[in-house]
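WARN  no MSA supplied for this record, continuing single-sequence
INFO  ligand: adenosine-5'-triphosphate
INFO  echoing inputs
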Amino acid sequence: MPILQVEHICKSFDRTEVLKDINFSLEKGQVVSIIGSSGSGKTTLLRCLNFLERPDKGVIRVNGETLFDDRDPATLSESAIRKKRLHFGLVFQSFHLFPQYTAQKNVMLARELLAKEQPDYKARKKEIQEEIRTQAQELLRQMGLADRMNNYPHQLSGGQCQRVAIARALALQPDILCFDEPTSALDPELTGEVIKVMKELAEQKKTMVIVTHEMAFARDVSDQVIFMDDGCVVERGTPAEVFEYPKEERTRQFLMRYTNG
Amino acid sequence: MELFMEQFPIVIRSLNVGFLQTLKLFFVTLIGAFPLGLIIAFGSMSRFRPLSYFTRVIVWIFRGTPLMIQLLIIYYFPGLVLHHPIWGGGESGRFFAASVSFILNYACYFSEIYRGGIQGVPVGQEEAGLVLGMTKSQIFFKVTLLQMIKRIVPPMSNEIITLVKDTSLARIIALQEIIWAGQAFMKGSQGISGAIWPLFFTAIYYLVCNGILTLLLGALEKKLNYFR
Ligand SMILES: Nc1ncnc2c1ncn2[C@@H]1O[C@H](COP(=O)(O)OP(=O)(O)OP(=O)(O)O)[C@@H](O)[C@H]1O
Ligand SMILES: [Mg+2]
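INFO  complex generated
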């Protein structure tokens, strides 16, 4: 069974249709890259998956569980959204780290707040906090930030900030980790360090949905590539299929601009 | 010189009493305007249009007219025009009316500062919290509140220092604050008349008070400088 199933997702803002019948699915441990020109709806799609936008139509299933179905009122209640969000993580283009906390605290905060809702929190407080701290330090080490744990975001470079943001998203162990152009806000010499950790995550079989303009990276790391244009999935396939033998004219033109640019 | 030495303790005692009234008005205004300003700020940001228009008109009126006029209207209007005095007589009635005027006026200024602080925090902060499964209230208290405070402190410091000086406007309804106390020695009071130095001397009180406030608020601002 696919870990993620997206069916017939539609979304309009006012009268402009931004997503028009989006369909795709994803197996556990796979990486899907979404490419496409500006304004094609990539960010909106990720925001729908993370329940930051509510689709007008469609179905979202994770591990077979229906998280969203516009025809099933039981899945639409606001109160359950918080739980559903935990299936997904989202790494933003401009990081959105919490500026008043150190790197380590940024990674720990959400888990600490969740842990407080556990019934045995009071009894095991010390133990749980130690567990959370150890996990945060381990994640930051994995991101190559062992010596930056106690720095505040403004003391870090863009590449370091983005790696903290990735650690922060990983801390909640989401089923599916989404990235929205994680390297677009970075100086070119800093994109490499972020791409490196993302490749490591792919090797560890993290399930990921990556919106990116880094074509070489998408080709290397993906099991599946989706090309979006004007709110539609125009083409979908393996990196070889999409990059080497695109079937659609629009895909060809888009890729041409990238290879010639 | 001898005369001055004789007058000095009398004047100081009198100015101290006036300054106590100044301080009372200052603190009462802050205590009232801090929360009321927040309520007005939420009102003006409300998605319920009639409410946001209404609060914005109120803010426009209070910021668009002199505080002195507001004091006069609030103090005299009920009694003189409506023939229904509500403030009671004497110093306590004047203080009550002055407090109401100052709280309303300053709440309107504060509300704009709050609004700037609240809207100045990028939406990305809230969205990052939501995606991490935080509740709205967790996001407010753990993520956005401190960032708002950081944004609010510098403009708030300006207003607070202005407020110290603005309290002297309450003299227009004969509230016996420090300027009133200083001026009394020109007209004649406690055997001293025609003395102008007590009035000048009140400036020292304002300077010292604002000096202390500047130091305190500056320290708070500095404390919040550990992040950006
Ligand atoms: N909140 C919104 N209100 C109205 N229109 C919106 C909103 N968010 C996005 N849009 C519109 O939806 C369309 C798709 O936007 P989206 O951000 O999803 O594109 P994108 O593929 O991520 O583009 P980019 O590569 O520039 O990030 C755009 O035309 C945009 O103007
Ligand atoms: Mg985008």
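The mean pLDDT of chain B is 94.
INFO  checksum written, moving to next record
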